[in-house]
Each structure stands twice: as C-alpha cells, then as structure tokens.
Amino acid sequence: xCKVNYKKSIQNTSILLVMMHLCFPAYAQWESxxxxxxxxxxxxxxxxxxxxxxxxxxxxxxxxxxxxxxxxILRERIxxxxxxxxxxxxxxxxxxxSSTRDNRPHIIVVHGGSPRGKDGMYNRVVKxxxxxxxxxxxxxxxxxxxxxxxxxxxxxxxxxxxxxxNRKSVYLNWVIQTTKDVSRSFxxxxxxxxASSDKIGYVGVSRGGxxxxxxxxxxxxxxxxxxxxxxxxxxxxxxxxxxACPANYVARIxxxxxxxxxxxxxxxxxxxxxxxxxHKQFNPESTExxxxxxxxxxxxxxxxxxxxxxxxxxx
Length: 315
Description:
This protein is 31% helix and 20% strand. It contains eight helices and nine strands. Residues 1-29 have low confidence and may be disordered.
C-alpha cells in the first residue's frame, strides 16, 4: 500500500504531485483528445446545436410527489417530463416563509457521479445557496439517483468509465439528454415557479461541472455559471466524440459570467493535464478562475466564495 504524508511540512508542490502519480499509477497515463488544443470552428459547432433541440411545447406533467420542511427550508420532491418518454426527478427548495420575496434568483444544481445523485447535494450545496438568498432546483442526471437504470452498478470510477464515460456514442447521447433536461428545468422554473429568466444560474459539481461546460455552452439563457472541481477529462476517461468534448464548448459560454474553482491536488481532474489547458479556452473577460490547495473536494471557504459570487452576479 502506498502512503502519502500530506502534513504541512511538505512544502514543495511538485514533489507532492510526483508522489501522487507514483502512488496512483492508473492516473499516470493521462488521455486527451485533439480538440483540447484545437477546438472546432464555428461552422462545425453550429451543426452540433441540432442535437440539443427539444419540444418546447411538450407538457411538463409536473407531479409534486412529496413536501417536507427541514432547517426552515421547504422541499418539493417532483417529477416532470423532459423529452418524450423521459422523466426527470428533482427537488425544488425555497425558504419556508410566506413573506419571501418573489424575485429571488434561482439556481439549477447538477450533481457529481455519486449514486445518490441530487440527494447528496443538500447539506454541502443547497443549504448554502438558500441561505445566500437563492432558490434551488436540484435534478438527477440519467443513470443516477432516482433515475438509476442498471447501466451503472457499483458507481466506482472504473464502473462509470467502462459503462458510460468511455462508451463514446452512449456518452454523447447522455450528454445530449442531460443538456435537454437542464434546458427543460430552466423552462420549468420560469413557467411553474415564477422564476425571473434573467436571474437563473447553473451550478455543476464534478461530473455535473464537466457536462456543465457543454450544457452552458449550448443553453445561453443562464445569467451565471459556476463549475466546480471539473475538467476536460477525468483520470480514467479515454476521450470523447467531438460533439461531447468540453473543449468545443467552453469558449461559447461567453459572455455569461462564469466562476471556476478547482483543487491543485485533484487526482480526478489533473491540474496540468486536464484543467489548465481547458481554462485557456475560456474568455477571460467573463471568467473568474479560483484554485484551492485541496484534492477532489470543496471546502467551506470555496462554497462561500461561490455563494457570494452568485449572489452578486444575480442580484
């Protein structure tokens, strides 16, 4: 068993990163794809947008399955139709007080690769957003949370890589569906929850951040985008089809204000190989980039930084 001492006495970052790669050989051979260095031109990109079209007139069939109050926060557990034959499970959160002003900003939250899906986001993400003046719609991505299909079984990194992330056509279809689900979530907030269309933001964490690079490059209605501990490829991915590659989308997020936060010691999304090269594709005029000395996690300071930025941007 390889052990790494993370005590404060280790000052040399480069030595620590070398030690991490020696201890985790599966992460040493980092894959990439050609679009990270040379994204597709605008003519080609325009052809991708057809993949993400959806029926805006389809009935939501919104079903409020349950209501509960915890920590002074009202949660509606809901299901709604995204596309033909595809339902999304989600939680809508707001303060449980009748005097709450109607024009609070709204945030669509998309989880990482946890089997719990949206249910793993409440304590660390949702409560902070609510207490900073925003309402939240947290959705399950297909194959996760209440939308489990059996495609993934252990939800370990190797299971997700083998059965979803590295099956190029399957992954492209998943990216397309997730993007449609988020766009329909935006529509739902406006049509059923009286959200102001100019005060809706997107927060994606880990895989929700990685797919968020694509979602927010396609869906231009967001007024703020926060993408946390995500990168171009994770450690076990072997590349994507061009239409599912984040590098072909991130420059198109502009001019939407964008907040990026990553960890310098993240072994899922390597700082030098997966994150910094992707960051170069963002337009600096609309992008804030933050680094913290952590691994694949977010500290309370990181969440506070994001929450304050969202509150200022969507005010």
